[in-house]
């Protein structure tokens, strides 16, 4: 009989099921009632349908099975299965529902089951999935949420602008399951606390609660109705509260969905824009309210897009339309604090640098300080500053995108005025980008900013980046010398920063230049720096262009590139920089390391040109190539050792026979048995490494023949945690059998690298044994024992041999050292006391990089020796002059006063040359040949210091004869402010007709109160501070104590924290002129808001004190 396969049975079963399903019917069985047991018997696969009447909306039912065979029954309500594991069904709207029961396919028929349907309520508010539970002010309810459950609630507000406070509790460490509140969107409730909902117009408002996921939670909720702020309802633009210019209005973000609108009238002149200042006040430092604001013009255009603030905020903006501007205030997040805040709009803009619309009116700044200024549409802001060093890089950044930056040289402006050309013109693309530009000589520079939109106060920073040590190498003839194996760090700070380097290939045979360039900064991607290598002959017009070109691209990780080129003897120049100076500035200053080495050119690119490899001698391999090991006998064992500096590479060396056939390969210490007589060759790949300020290293290789099964050196001396290449050899048959045993588990051998590593302990000795894997008592057993000794102080004596010739800048010298014992010569640590004079490598090679004295120290452990070395340089002559600079580039003097000294400096330092001084307007001021400027009469002159072909200029402004300041004082010694308020201090300067009345201002405690450049004091927190005003002319000072109190409470005139008869008495005394109240006291006393302090205010205060009225609002 033929066997029926498994797949055949599966197909037959599936066919049977399909047939059964096709013929199954739904049989109507009548109605069932809640709480009444039902018994059902299934004789076939038909579906039995019952009906159930739901008396109300939102009811849920739960099935209780009275028999154990419930798993064989499917029960659906209105076609839906239960929505959770507790067999609970939603009936949704009231009316007749279908109950369908069927036996599952695995059930054996006939089957009888019994069940009952119960109404399911998980809390007292159920069923409120569809019909909300009505709440009232002060109600407290407990609710339970489970999967699929939604609890709906409604509450009716009675006053306009009321808010609903929902205080949730029930969260604890063991039960932190969150749920959701649905009110104008979904808010997750994750902890105990209060959520505020803004209701608006009086009426009924509904919200719902639900949870996601399985499980069940029980929580409590307390409900309260809260009155809105005094300006409600102002939730829409149409109901905006009118805000008079210069007055404060109270507001608070009442809850989720709240919006407070205010309007003010702007009155700019026809065709012109006018500045206004928005102030948001009274933010709580400890529990800040997060508020968003937007400003709209009368025609609906956006003046200020949505801006989030959480602390005291000021914004200057421009109004060009006449009419009502509107301000919308709204919550930034769902977590509303209902903090009472204030809003104020003032005429004018708080830009302390105005008027600075021309270069003659430029505001002088200190580089690096943040400039808060207003840049209106069509406005131009000029700033000037002193650059203290040559070759500094200017960086201009701002949060005002599309701002146009122009950079000017002060000397050019002094000579050419408005016709002077900017040395850089660029647009700031975004707040994360800026303008970088490398400047030339030190002196006075100007920055012109334009292209603003007046949407907000611009925060701009003009900073200076100091030049790197090797700067002034931006032309080939001032190239920085590179020293072989010494790492040279450099920066490309701007598009116009070009760095040049030079090195020399010595006379003799052709060399291979091994060049490593690493980019050490990370950040934005896709920014290129280009490199080109030139022969010196190029600058004598003997070459048409560069020899080689490459570029390094910035990325989010550090980048390194290696290059190898064949070079003839001679001097070479390498340039690095951006070739397109019209491009946009890079996103940051770019940092690099450059490192080179010269290696002999072997010309062994083919087997025919293979270089001989001497047996037993190490051969450095700087370029991939072929080496010959000569004629070998069949059966001879050749040991190949490949040292890659402790690194491991999967790139294998390859062994070839004389016919060019590959016969074997190896990637580490290995042995090879010669198959047939003949000449053999190996091709070796390269690993190049350029450690910083260390000699570059690469693969080195050696070979030798032997007849040993296993062998090694007998002893090694090391430093703790040091690694050395181990001389180990073996037969090809032994390699895979070798076992390693060490007396110290931290004395280890790495097969991949061939390196032995000592334990990291102060000293010790241990044996490491290599064996061929056979038992010790087996005659085939071989071993090789290495005794390793390590110590952190192994050397008893160390000395450095003196140099025979003095060093000049640019010289190289190899220092020789002697140690006892001698084994540690290769483990010397070298240091230089001054790397700007001498740099030293780990092999004792020193480079003289600057003039001066330095001490070179060689040490091993605690033993050390030192050698002082002096590096000399030729004194520069006038022919070496490269520039001249002044100590100042602007100077303001007054007619008839004493002469002022200007100082000129020649470059390089120490150059001797004659300096010639001239004044372009000797009517205004004269200058002596030692640099003293004497002011004569009002006017402007340019004083110039010239030496050779170089010059530097200072703009001297002579003002008319001035009346000098003799003193300064304040009329009062103490002034009290309420937190959040301001006052403009106006000290008295003597005499009244003093010419220069400019002041500098300082606050002793800026956490309590700040003071602006114009003397505006802003009270920030309760406390005391001293404000000091100092005259620019004469340096006279005066002080005033500022006492900051808490913001006044309406009715609390004396500020003692109580509203009582004492406050009413102050109102009465002020109303008849017996006393004068401060502005803060007046604000607290005018409780009826009629603008007057009179008996009406006193009566309201007394009625409140007697509890006859609930509040003073």
Features:
1113 residues, mainly beta, five-stranded mixed β-sheet, 5 helices, 89 strands, 5% helix, flat, disordered N terminus
Notes on the protein architecture:
With 1113 residues, the protein is mostly beta strands. The chain is 5% helix and 46% strand. It is built from five helices and 89 strands. Helix 3 runs antiparallel to helix 5 (1095-1105). The longest helix is centred in the N-terminal third of the chain and has 18 residues, at 6-23. The radius of gyration is 45 Å and the shape is flat. The termini are far apart.
Mean pLDDT: 85
Helicity range of the residues?
under 10%
Task: Tell how many strands the DSSP assignment holds.
Answer: 89
- In terms of DSSP E residues, the strand content is over 45%
Head-to-tail CA distance between termini: 103 Å
The largest pleated sheet is described as: 5 strands, mixed
* Biggest sheet: strand arrangement: 9-11-16-13-14
Fold topology:
Layout: H1 6-23, E1 26-31, E2 38-42, E3 47-54, E4 60-65, E5 73-77, E6 88-90, E7 95-103, E8 111-119, E9 133-135, E10 140-146, E11 150-157, E12 162-169, E13 179-182, E14 186-189, E15 193-200, E16 203-210, E17 216-226, E18 241-242, E19 248-251, E20 260-266, E21 274-281, E22 291-296, E23 302-309, E24 313-319, E25 323-331, E26 341-347, E27 363-364, E28 370-374, E29 381-387, E30 393-398, E31 404-409, H2 410-416, E32 424-427, E33 434-438, E34 443-450, E35 457-465, E36 480-481, E37 488-492, E38 498-505, E39 511-519, E40 528-535, E41 548-553, E42 559-567, E43 570-577, E44 590-600, E45 611-612, E46 619-621, E47 625-632, E48 637-643, E49 653-657, E50 662-666, E51 670-673, E52 678-684, E53 699-706, E54 710-712, E55 715-718, E56 723-725, E57 728-730, E58 739-742, E59 748-750, E60 755-757, E61 763-771, E62 783-791, E63 797-800, E64 807-808, E65 812-814, E66 817-820, E67 829-832, E68 838-840, E69 845-848, E70 852-860, E71 863-872, E72 883-886, E73 890-894, E74 900-901, E75 904-907, E76 916-919, E77 925-927, E78 932-935, ...
Parallel strand pairs: 1-3, 9-11, 18-20, 27-29, 36-38, 45-47, 55-62, 64-71, 73-80, 82-89
Antiparallel strand pairs: 2-8, 3-7, 4-6, 4-8, 5-7, 10-17, 11-16, 12-15, 12-17, 13-14, 13-16, 19-26, 20-25, 21-24, 21-26, 22-23, 22-25, 28-35, 29-34, 30-33, 30-35, 31-32, 31-34, 37-44, 38-43, 39-42, 39-44, 40-41, 40-43, 46-53, 47-52, 48-51, 48-53, 49-50, 49-52, 54-57, 56-60, 58-61, 59-60, 61-62, ...
């Amino acid at each position: 009989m033929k066997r029926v396969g498994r797949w055949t049975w599966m197909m037959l079963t599936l066919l049977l099921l399909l047939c059964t399903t096709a013929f199954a019917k739904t049989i109507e069985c009548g109605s069932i009632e809640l709480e009444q047991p039902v018994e059902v018997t299934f004789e076939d696969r038909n579906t039995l349908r019952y009906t159930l009447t739901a008396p109300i909306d939102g009811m849920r039912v739960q099935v209780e099975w009275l028999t154990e065979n419930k798993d064989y029954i499917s029960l659906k309500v209105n076609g839906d299965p239960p929505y959770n594991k507790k067999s609970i069904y939603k009936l949704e709207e009231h009316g007749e529902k279908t109950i369908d029961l069927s036996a599952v396919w695995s059930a054996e028929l006939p089957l009888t089951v019994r069940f009952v349907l119960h109404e399911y309520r998980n809390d007292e508010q159920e069923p409120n999935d569809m019909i909300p539970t009505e709440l009232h002010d002060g109600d407290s309810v407990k609710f339970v949420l489970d999967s699929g459950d939604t609890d709906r609630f409604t509450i009716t507000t009675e006053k306009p602008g009321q808010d609903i406070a929902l205080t949730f509790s029930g969260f604890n460490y063991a039960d932190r399951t969150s749920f959701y509140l649905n009110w104008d969107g979904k808010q997750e409730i994750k902890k105990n606390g209060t959520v505020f909902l803004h209701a608006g117009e009086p009426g009924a408002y509904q919200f719902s609660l639900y949870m996601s996921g399985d499980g069940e939670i029980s929580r409590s909720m307390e409900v309260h109705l809260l009155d809105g702020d005094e300006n409600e309802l102002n939730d829409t633009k149409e109901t905006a509260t009118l805000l008079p210019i210069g007055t404060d209005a109270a507001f608070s973000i009442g809850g989720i969905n709240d919006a407070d609108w205010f309007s003010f009238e702007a009155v700019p002149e026809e065709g012109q824009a006018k500045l206004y200042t928005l102030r948001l006040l009274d933010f709580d430092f400890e529990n800040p309210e997060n508020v968003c604001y937007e400003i709209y013009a009368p025609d609906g255009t956006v003046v200020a897009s949505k801006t989030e603030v959480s602390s005291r905020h000021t914004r200057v903006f421009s109004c060009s339309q006449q009419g009502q501007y509107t301000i919308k205030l709204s919550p930034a997040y769902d977590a509303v604090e209902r903090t009472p805040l204030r809003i104020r709009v003032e005429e004018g803009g708080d830009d302390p640098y105005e008027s600075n619309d021309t270069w003659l009116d430029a505001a002088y700044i200190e580089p690096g300080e943040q400039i808060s200024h207003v840049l209106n549409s069509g406005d131009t802001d000029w700033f000037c500053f002193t650059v203290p060093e040559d070759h500094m890089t200017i960086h201009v950044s701002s949060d005002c995108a599309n701002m146009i930056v122009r950079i000017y040289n002060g000397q050019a402006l002094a000579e050419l005025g408005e016709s002077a050309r900017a040395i850089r013109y660029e647009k700031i693309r975004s707040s994360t980008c800026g303008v970088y530009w490398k400047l030339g000589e030190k002196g006075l520079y100007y920055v012109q900013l334009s292209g603003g939109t007046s949407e907000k106060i611009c925060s701009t920073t003009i900073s200076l980046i100091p030049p790197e040590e090797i700067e002034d190498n931006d032309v080939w003839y001032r190239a920085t010398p590179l020293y072989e194996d010494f790492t040279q760090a450099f920066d490309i700070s701007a598009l116009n920063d070009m760095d040049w380097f030079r090195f020399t290939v010595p006379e003799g045979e052709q060399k291979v230049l091994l060049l490593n360039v690493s980019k050490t900064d990370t950040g934005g991607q896709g920014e290129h720096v280009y490199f080109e290598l030139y022969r010196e002959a190029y600058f004598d017009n003997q070459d048409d262009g560069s020899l080689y070109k490459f570029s390094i691209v910035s990325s989010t990780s550090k980048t390194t590139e290696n290059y190898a080129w064949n070079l003839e003897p001679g001097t070479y120049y390498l340039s690095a920089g951006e070739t397109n100076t019209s491009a946009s500035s890079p996103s940051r200053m770019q940092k690099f390391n450059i490192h080179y080495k010269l290696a002999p050119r072997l010309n062994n690119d083919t087997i025919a040109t293979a270089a001989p490899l001497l047996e037993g001698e190490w051969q450095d391999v700087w370029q991939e190539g072929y080496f010959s090991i000569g004629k070998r006998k069949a059966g001879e064992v050749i040991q190949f050792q490949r040292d890659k500096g402790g690194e491991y590479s999967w790139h294998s060396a390859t062994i070839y026979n004389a016919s060019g056939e590959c016969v074997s390969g190896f990637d580490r210490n290995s042995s090879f048995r010669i198959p047939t007589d003949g000449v053999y060759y190996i091709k070796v790949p390269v690993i190049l490494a350029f450690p910083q300020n260390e000699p570059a290293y690469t693969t080195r290789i050696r070979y030798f023949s032997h007849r040993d099964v296993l062998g090694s050196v007998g002893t090694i001396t090391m430093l703790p945690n040091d690694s050395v290449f181990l001389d180990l050899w073996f037969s090809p048959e032994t390699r895979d059998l070798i076992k390693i045993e060490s007396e110290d588990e931290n004395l280890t051998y790495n097969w991949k690298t061939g390196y032995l590593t000592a334990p990291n302990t102060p000293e010790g000795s241990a044996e490491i044994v290599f064996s061929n894997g056979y038992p010790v008592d087996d005659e085939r057993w071989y071993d090789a024992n290495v005794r390793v000794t390590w110590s952190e102080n192994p050397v008893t004596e160390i000395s450095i041999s003196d140099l025979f010739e003095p060093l000049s800048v640019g010289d190289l010298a190899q220092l020789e050292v002697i140690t006892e014992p001698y084994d540690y010569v290769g483990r010397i640590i070298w240091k230089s006391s001054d790397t700007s004079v001498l740099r030293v490598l780990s092999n004792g090679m020193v480079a003289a990089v600057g003039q001066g004295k330095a001490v070179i120290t060689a040490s091993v452990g605690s033993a050390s020796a030192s050698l002082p070395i002096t590096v000399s340089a030729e004194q520069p002559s006038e022919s070496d002059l490269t520039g001249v600079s002044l100590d100042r580039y602007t100077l303001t003097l007054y007619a008839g006063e004493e002469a002022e000294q200007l100082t000129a400096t020649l470059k390089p330092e120490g150059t001797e040359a004659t300096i010639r001084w001239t004044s372009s307007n000797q009517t205004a001021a004269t200058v002596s040949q030692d640099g003293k400027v004497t002011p004569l009469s009002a006017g402007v002159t340019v004083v110039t210091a010239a030496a050779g072909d170089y010059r530097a200029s200072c703009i001297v402004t002579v003002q008319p004869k001035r009346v000098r300041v003799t003193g300064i004082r304040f009329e009062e010694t103490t002034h009290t402010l309420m937190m959040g308020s301001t006052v403009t201090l106006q000290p008295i300067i003597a005499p009244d007709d003093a010419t220069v009345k400019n002041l500098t201002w300082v606050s002793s405690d800026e956490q309590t109160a700040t003071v602006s450049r114009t003397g505006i004091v802003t009270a920030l927190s309760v406390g005391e501070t001293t404000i000091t005003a100092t005259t620019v002319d004469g340096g006279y000072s005066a002080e005033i104590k500022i006492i900051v109190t808490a913001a006044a409470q309406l009715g609390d005139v004396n500020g003692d924290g109580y509203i009582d008869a004492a406050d009413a008495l102050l109102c009465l005394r002020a109303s008849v002129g017996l006393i004068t109240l401060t502005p803060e006291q007046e604000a607290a006393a005018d409780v009826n808001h009629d603008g007057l302090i009179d008996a009406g205010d006193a009566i309201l205060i007394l009625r409140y004190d007697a509890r006859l009225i609930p509040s003073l609002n």
